[in-house]
Write a structure and sequence with these properties.
4 helices, alpha+beta, 8 strands, about 30% helix, eight-stranded mixed sheet
């Protein structure tokens, strides 16, 4: 499922989602390393090379949107179809953009689109990550967990075509 119908989607709060291109891979790999470092170190799982390589190995430009604020890379999100669900992955915001409502706004946009398709969304988040609270606020529930990951799902919400 492409997250975007066109090349970009602008929002009133000044951010834009645009389709990722192959040239985005290194910037997103670096963003992943920065954002995930503290949680991976806390779990004893940080590896300077592997944190970037895991993104490179699974990067899917056709399913990834880059979050831009002005000309700045503010983050990214991937929504990839898999096994009858949409898999939300690689949802990262630059540290100075976190805690300002941007993550919630982007997640609402993603979920409006998956709801319109009637799709369940699944994801995993690292144990103890603050991101789990964001997902819980948006209706995700824990499906399973292990010592490293918490696996969460969200069933589609009913959508209406008429707006007041």
């Amino acid at each position: 499922m492409p997250l975007l119908a066109g090349n970009a989607s602008a929002h009133a709060a000044g951010w834009v989602l645009r389709r990722a291109v192959a040239a985005d891979i290194e910037g997103i790999a670096e963003l992943r390393a920065t954002v995930m470092r503290a949680d991976l170190e806390r779990l004893g799982r940080y590896d300077e090379r592997r944190v970037r390589q895991r993104l490179r190995d699974s990067f899917s430009p056709q399913h990834t949107s880059v979050i831009m604020v002005g000309r700045e890379l503010a983050g990214c999100v991937t929504v990839r179809p898999t096994e009858g669900r949409q898999w939300l992955e690689h949802f990262y915001l630059t540290p100075h953009r976190q805690g300002q409502g941007l993550g919630s706004a982007v997640l609402r946009t993603v979920l409006e689109r998956t709801d319109a398709q009637g799709s369940t969304v699944a994801l995993n988040v690292l144990q103890g990550s603050a991101a789990q609270r964001l997902y819980e606020r948006h209706g995700f529930t824990v499906e399973a967990q292990d010592p490293i990951d918490v696996f969460m799902t969200r069933r589609p919400r009913a959508t209406t075509t008429a707006h007041a």
